[in-house]
Design goal:
Order of helices and strands: HHHHHHHHH
Helix content: 55-70%
Shape: globular
Number of strands: 0
Strand content: under 5%
Number of helices: 9
Mean pLDDT: 75
Distance between the termini: 15 Å
Low-confidence stretches: 75-87, 94-105, 121-125
Largest sheet: none
Structural class: mainly alpha
């Protein structure tokens, strides 16, 4: 799915990936992977998923273990950001086939059918290309990514949700801001790892794959 534009994915496929990447962020941060934490991260990114997905994913991760899922997705090989997309495929597939509950049977069947169709077409999970990463995160379009670009990207994704929460429950707003800070720290860590020459910028050659 990662070699196709997000707009071309079905709603179920988008939900799978959103839940999987939110779980990976929580795992990288050493935080507990719960349905609520995943939902908060997804909302902080300005997205939404069907309510059953975070529950299925969290239950599956609790049974199998995130480390095992990452090994399944990466072939038990090297680490780094390159394992994220294969791990996403493993986690999403496991959630669809093993997360079960009565109310999710119909949705699980749909996901399984989609995965079978993908297998028939011979598609494989691939990480985002450097060009895709530059397109998404080079916010000022100067040909390189800075932490200012990262902050602008996160702000653009969280602005609407923050505006809504500011009119409502202060506790929810506080939780939301903590999640945004957690996301920012995760991006900062990945940014510093990718910035090979330590000049404070990521260019096309340094963009993680």
């Amino acid at each position: 799915m990662a070699n196709v534009p997000a707009s071309a994915l079905s709603k179920e496929q988008q939900d799978e990936l959103l839940c999987t990447y939110s779980a990976l962020i929580l795992h990288d941060d050493g935080a507990e992977i719960t349905p609520q934490a995943m939902t908060n991260l997804i909302k902080a990114a300005g997205c939404s998923v069907e309510g059953y997905w975070p529950m299925l994913m969290a239950k599956m991760i609790g049974n199998v273990g995130m480390d095992n899922l990452i090994k399944m997705g990466s072939g038990a090989g090297g680490g780094g950001g390159g394992g994220a997309a294969p791990a996403a495929g493993a986690a999403a597939g496991a959630a669809a086939s093993g997360g079960g509950g009565g109310e999710g049977k119909k949705e699980e069947k749909k996901v399984e059918e989609e995965e079978e169709e993908e297998d028939r077409e011979g598609e494989e999970e691939q990480p985002a290309t450097p060009e895709q990463i530059m397109h998404d995160f080079d916010f000022d379009k100067d040909g390189k990514i800075s932490m200012a670009d990262i902050h602008a990207f996160i702000e653009s994704k969280s602005k609407e949700e923050r505006s809504l929460l500011q009119k409502g429950n202060k506790a929810e707003l506080a939780d939301f801001e903590k999640d945004v800070a957690r996301i920012t720290e995760a991006y900062k860590t990945h940014f510093e790892e990718a910035d090979g020459d330590k000049d404070g910028f990521i260019d096309l050659k340094e963009a993680p794959v």
